[in-house]
Amino acid sequence: MKRLLFLALPLLLATCTPSGPGSSRSSHSAPEGVNVSLMIPAGQYGRHQMRPMDPRYITVHTTQSYGRGAGARTHAQILRRGGLKSTHNSLGYLTWHFSVDSESIYQSLPTNEQGQHADYEGSGNKYSIGIEMCENRDGSFAATKARTAKLIAQLMKQHDIPLSRVVGHCEWERVRYSDGKNLGYKNCPKPLLDNGKYGPKWQAFKRQIQSYL
Question: N-acetylmuramoyl-L-alanine amidase domain spans which residues (predicted)?
Fold first, then answer.
């Protein structure tokens, strides 16, 4: 996603405002106990097809976008405007459910709809809620982790998902829809992995999630 965001961010950052159409505070589609702003496209771009989902997993990503201002709102605006197109999946766009930074959470898909964030037509997209943790250098990644852990805990309660099914993007093998090319497993969420695999960093993050349950 890093390359696509590099292309989309400059124009978007130039037009960002504190508030805008399509943004609102928490509703029934957001988990209780967590302050979530909604920025969900109305039946277009990443939602131009209805793709229902009964979530069984939560998949954690990091954005690999480090510029100033590349926070949750910026990523949500990109999704709302259809800024992340894809020629390799069946939907034509990349999309996920929540973007999280050190100060805010934005929701871009209802949690009962499939995203395109993990593994093309695999189980990671068909059955998991996708969360992108922002890595903008003007934010605090420690605070982003804490906010994400609290969001995950609430989503687990809301959808009866066990901690064992909170996974990283690295969990899902990526086989491209367009040509069947196997891209293997991605080193994501990189800051929470040890050499691309689950290790002490990931276990510490899961303990942080557990502390909010």
Answer: 45-181
* From 28-42, 56-70, 180-194, the region with the lowest mean pLDDT: 28-42
pLDDT band at 31 (very low <50, low <70, confident <90, very high): confident
With a threshold of 0.90, does the pTM exceed it?
A: no
Specify whether domain 32-40+50-210 bears CATH 3.40.80.10. Answer: yes
The two beta strands, 57-62 and 128-133, are parallel
**Is 111's pLDDT higher than 50?**
yes
Contacts of 182 (CB under 8 A, 6+ apart): 173, 174, 175, 176
The pairing of beta strand 105-107 with beta strand 98-100: antiparallel
